[in-house]
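input
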Amino acid sequence: MTDELDWQLCRSFLAVLDEGSLSGAARALGLTQPTIGRHVEALEQALATPLFVRSPQGLVPTEAALEIRPHAEAMRAAAASLRRAVSGAEGGARGTVRLTASEVVGAEVLPPMLARFRERHPGIALELVLSNRTQDLLKRESDIAIRMIRPEQSALLSRKVGVTTLGLYAHRDYLARHGTPRSMEELGGQALIGFDQESPSIQTLRAMGFRMGREGFVFRTDSDLAQLALIRAGAGIGVCQVGVARREEALVHVLPEDFAYALDLWVVMHENLRTSEPMRLVYDHLAAELKAYALTSRR
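output
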């Protein structure tokens, strides 16, 4: 096995994994199918192990391929981070900054903040990743993250900017049809909107005393945006950030004294990025904007 691996070989390997075929990988990367085939063969020779088996369904990854996939993905993230760092070092407030946030924060909270940032700094491109998975900033999957839990890694630069409160909300038309519950016990007779499978965020709420379970939900989805859309459509009662719901007159806060969970808002980035002007500008801007948003998200 060789001591050094060519990133281009790993890039083609990941494309084949993602697309399931040499032809699909070639289209994705803008290369020819024979070139992708040679890259895969070269990587197999370098690692001294087969990575794919041909089948009627296409190329099936071997166990070795699945084992090295996380390492190849880390190389891809590092290469993207390197490109962003170089673009930001060309002088002035120019470059690319990759952000990650939860579905609701990324789709409902950040867009006007990012629009205002671009008006001030048109030379900085922004990449926004919506994911309820906590991306690893140490592996540089993203540059800056908005998180609801306190970061634990010492190599991260983090700033708590406030608290966002979760409450129960329903469209006023739904409540006009089905009545407004006056206690948590009366929720049992309502159409409740909630999760299908417990995520880390739900487990965090569990530790805070959250007791609602999937068996009580008549609408189940693990997409927070889909839950919000169902609430807006008048399908039932669901959980929403107070700061988001307050923007819409038609959404009514249900049982505000009985159901309220406060989550911290953190802006986080790798400490090595603090000297990058584009990173610092985005970090400081989001910290200020989210601090103002947190004031609207109190119960």
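quick obs: The chain has a mean pLDDT of 85.
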